[in-house]
Each structure stands twice: as structure tokens, then as C-alpha cells.
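Whiteboard transcription, Tuesday session. T.W. wrote the C-alpha cells on the left side:
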């Protein structure tokens, strides 16, 4: 009798265990099936315009970004949307003339996907540029990186090294997600620069582009012929000062404007900055 009861108890225990496992498994499956799926969003330029594949989310509004560099180290600012060095520059940048070396940390100001990059030689030194796009349609560029952190060095070591002055970009496939605040670089600019400040040129380029719409700047046909990348960058570039916190924006606007064009800008309110 006791043996029979023991067998029944074991069978009952097994049935309860199997039932529990099936119940939990069904609930887990239902939960997975009920989780809404989101299509991957990507942005591409077809030679004339930017367009999204997939439904982009709304951008944060207001969109306030941290500076990609420590503003306490910055000695001057390059304004976006002006001619510099005989070329049109939709982006701006930061200078660091008081640095004893080229060691400047650079961070991602916004989450997004690294979609293309370049590495090439300039004045015999490697230079890196990186382009990131948030799913909502905001792109930012960081250029004249001298030394990358380990994560980004591993990524960019897989793309071709351009010859002297050849900064042609390479698409990163698949795109690499980055969170806001990830460190990209430990050095910027040129460590050996002819005629540079203290034989160095310590700076980094920074630009923001709104791919959802054009910025309203009227570039005539002759200008477009001279500067072939206007549709891709110039017509979408914005004044990145406006995307900083009010405190950081005030700091940036008080800094000296670097370059012959000074505070002249197609995006930042004209000569008054």
C-alpha cells in the first residue's frame, strides 16, 4: 500500500512539474509574440537627397546635446557654413591652443549608428572622420581625430587607408550602434604641423545635419558646381551651437572665431554669430 502511494505521489509530482513548465513556456512565448516589433531605420543619400528606409521615430524636442569635448579646454571655435581654405565647410569645430599635447578626449553627443568613416594620411599623420546618424534623422560628424579608442580603432582598421589628402569615406556595414557619451578619441589634430602653434595643430571638426529637411540656404548653380557635396551636407547642415545647452552655447559664442571668415556663417545668424 505504501509503495502504491509513493508511486502515485511521484506521478502527481511529475504531472505538476510538467504542467508548470508548459504554462511558463506558453506565457513566455505569448509575451515574446506580443512584444511590438520595430523595423530597423536607415538613412541613405542617393546622390540628390536623403531618404529614410523604415519609419523614423520623432526626434527629441527640444533636442539638447552635450558638447563632444570639454569646453574648458577650448580656445577658439570654427563656425559652420563658411568658406575656409578655399573650400566650403558646412561643419565647424574646436581649437585647443593651450594644450601641452594633442591629448583631447572626444565623446558622442547623441546615440546613433556609425554609418561611414574615413582614415587617410595628412601631413604624414593618420586622420579619422566618423559619421553617425540617429534613427530620427539627425546626423553628426567628427573629423580630424588623431587617435581612436580601442572600440573605434578596431572598426576603422578594417577600412582602406587613404593616401595623402584622400579623405574618401567608406560605408560601415553593418552600421555600429553607439550610445550617447561613448568616448571616440584620445587625441585630435596634428602632432607635427608645419607652421602650427607650438609645432602642433590641436583641433577637431564637428558638424550636425538635419536629414529630414533642407536648411533653406540658397546655393546657386555655380556654387554647387564648385562644391559638389552641397546636396549631401551643405543643404542639411545646421548651427550646432543651437543644440547645446544654453550655458554651453553662451560659452561657445563668447569664444574667439578662428579663421579668416570669423563669425560669418550661413547657419549661425550671420556675422554677429
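and on the right, the sequence the group agreed on:
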Amino acid at each position: 500500500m505504501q509503495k502504491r502511494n509513493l508511486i502515485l505521489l511521484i506521478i502527481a509530482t511529475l504531472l505538476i512539474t510538467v504542467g508548470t513548465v508548459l504554462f511558463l513556456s506558453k506565457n513566455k512565448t505569448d509575451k515574446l509574440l506580443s512584444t511590438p516589433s520595430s523595423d530597423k531605420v536607415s538613412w541613405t543619400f542617393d546622390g540628390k537627397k536623403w531618404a529614410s528606409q523604415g519609419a523614423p521615430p520623432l526626434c527629441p524636442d527640444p533636442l539638447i546635446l552635450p558638447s563632444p569635448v570639454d569646453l574648458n579646454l577650448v580656445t577658439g571655435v570654427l563656425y559652420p557654413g563658411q568658406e575656409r581654405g578655399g573650400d566650403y565647410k558646412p561643419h565647424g569645430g574646436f581649437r585647443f591652443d593651450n594644450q601641452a599635447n594633442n591629448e583631447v578626449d572626444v565623446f558622442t553627443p547623441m546615440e546613433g549608428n556609425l554609418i561611414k568613416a574615413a582614415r587617410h594620411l595628412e601631413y604624414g599623420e593618420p586622420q579619422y572622420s566618423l559619421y553617425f546618424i540617429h534613427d530620427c534623422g539627425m546626423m553628426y560628424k567628427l573629423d580630424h581625430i588623431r587617435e581612436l579608442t580601442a572600440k573605434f580603432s578596431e572598426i576603422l582598421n578594417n577600412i582602406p587607408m587613404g593616401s595623402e589628402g584622400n579623405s574618401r569615406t567608406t560605408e560601415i556595414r553593418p552600421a555600429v550602434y553607439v550610445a550617447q557619451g561613448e568616448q571616440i578619441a584620445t587625441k585630435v589634430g596634428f602632432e607635427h604641423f608645419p607652421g602650427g602653434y607650438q609645432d602642433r595643430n590641436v583641433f577637431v571638426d564637428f558638424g550636425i545635419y538635419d536629414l529630414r529637411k533642407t536648411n533653406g540656404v540658397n546655393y546657386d548653380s555655380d556654387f554647387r558646381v564648385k562644391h559638389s557635396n552641397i546636396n549631401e551636407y551643405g543643404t542639411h547642415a545646421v548651427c550646432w551651437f543651437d543644440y547645446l545647452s544654453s550655458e554651453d552655447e553662451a560659452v561657445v559664442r563668447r569664444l574667439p572665431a578662428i579663421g579668416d571668415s570669423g563669425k560669418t556663417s550661413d547657419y549661425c545668424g550671420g556675422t554677429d554669430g
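Someone added at the bottom: The first strand starts at residue 42 and ends at 45.
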